Amino acid sequence: MFISSAAMTMRSLRKHAAIATLLIVQVAIAMAVLCNLFTVVLDASQRSRTHSGLSESHIAVVQNIGIIGLEEDATSSAAGLRAMRAVPGITMAAIGPAPFAVERGDVYLEPSRELSVARPYIYFGSESLSDTLGVSVLQGVGLRTLRAPAVGDALQAGGSLHVPAVVTSSLSKRLFPAGNPLGQIIHAEVWGSYPIALRIVGVVTDFRSASTRSPSDSDAVIAEVKIESESIGGLYVARRSASFDHRGKQGLLTALSLSMPGFVQEPVRTVAELRVRNFRKDVARSQVLLLVATIVTVSSALGVFGLTHFWVSRRRWSTAIRRALGASRRDVVVLFATESALISSIGVLAGMGLAILMNLLLGRQVELVPVSGLAMAAGAGVTFFGCSVAAIIPAFSAAKVEPALAFRLR
Question: pTM of the predicted model, to two decimals?
Answer without folding.
Answer: 0.80
